[in-house]
Amino acid sequence: MRTRSFRMAAAASTVTLSLVLVGCGSGSGGQDKNKADGPVTLEWWSWDEPKLLQPIVDKFNSTHDDVRLKLVKQTDSAGAAQNVRNVVASGKGVPCLVKNFGEIPGLAGEGLLTDITKELEPHLDKFNKVAPPAVRAGGAYYGIPTGFNPTFFMINRKVYDKYGVDVPKTWDDVIAAGKKLKKHGVQIMNLAGEDPSTLVNLVQQAGGTWYKEQGDTWKVDFLSPESLKAADIVQQLVDNDLVANQTYQDRPALIAYFDSGKMVSLPTQTWQLRNYEINDKKSLGDWQPVDLPQFAGAPFTTPAHLANAGMLVPKGCAHVKEAVEAGVWMLTDKAGIDASYQKDTKQYNWPGAVKDVTPWVDSVVPEKLFGPHKSEARGVILKAFEHAKDSWTVGPNYTGVFAELQDQWAKIVTKKITVKAALQHMQEFTVRDLKSKNINVEG
User: Fold this and answer.
1) How far apart are CA 68 and CA 43, in angstroms?
2) Best CA proximity match to 14, nearest among 94, 108, 99
3) Left, alpha or beta for 218 (phi > 0: left; psi -120 to 50: alpha)?
4) Are 412 and 425 in contact (CB under 8 A)?
5) What is the pLDDT of residues 42-77, one digit of tens each?
6) What domains does the chain contain, in order, with CATH numbers?
7) What is this structure's pTM?
8) Do the beta carbons of residue 437 and residue 5 sit within 8 Å?
């Protein structure tokens, strides 16, 4: 089934992006790697700051004789996406490793990626069990898993204590706490009007998914029991006016609002903590890391699907085996992870693909953000990592579906429609869209 659905979805998955000039790649598609003179050179395209990645490249090159990595800075995600489309279309200058810029099924459907199943499978035992599914599409692997950031809660404990509100253990507790805090002009959480990730994450935490692949047919279900359970939590938060709607598009204003004490609970991940430490002024030291609230009566679970997970191997890479081995080394070998250490921040790149993250957990915990609760962060993060599950399947038209969901979400948080009505709309929209692309669908 691998080819039918994804190839037929190619036209729908293409995103129009501004053209960015691209430098020469490491080789042209179809080149015989056995004819190469000297070490194989692999270009690695990323828009991350070179100071974060170059030490990894240097360490790799100093410890490998037959392969060399060359870091090529991209302007941003959109620029990298267009550059990859350009070189894959031309068959010339194709890099062998690229930071992910989209969901794997859509990119595979465009014909942009190499099936690396044969090369990756011998290395899968080096990854935690949650990481590999994010780089699968149609039964094949199209990227090297970068893994996930564990999700937990951070609360402004000073404000919680001021108003005698208990730390929430369940989502029902969050709603109850929100009602108490509302009396004092304080919002329990923030639901930005452009970002439906809270709903998506709740569906995942409940063990649900909107797509399932069965043979050559996609099953679509936005109204599953898991989705409705998630919808009920969001609906109560919105109906009771318990949440703020600060946009993520104005980052300074958003951080200032979080810092004000007027919004006191944040679902967060390890990569966000340093940013809060740098920008928090009034509330620095007032925050406490706590377990992510759970659905009442359910096993402890944190969502682990990460959009854009995976290091991509584009179609036309001339050295696929070497690219996979280099990517696996960077993401799972202790020497590769240790090479990412930054002296100024005292942090490593988060090793979300490995089985055991304990050697690197302490480095992601800021010195001052959690004040007297700093020592609790390690246990909270490790628990979130160990109980992470990825029930999520991304369909071949998810890019367009997510854009539609964003429109529906904006109406949800402004009380123009209910969450259930939005899910019903998304069910009809998704099925209709898949049928228009001649993809077999049930739903």
Assistant:
1) 9
2) 108
3) beta
4) no
5) 999 999 999 999 999 999 999 999 999 999 999 999
6) 2-148+307-362 (3.40.190.10), 151-303+366-442 (3.40.190.10)
7) 0.88
8) no
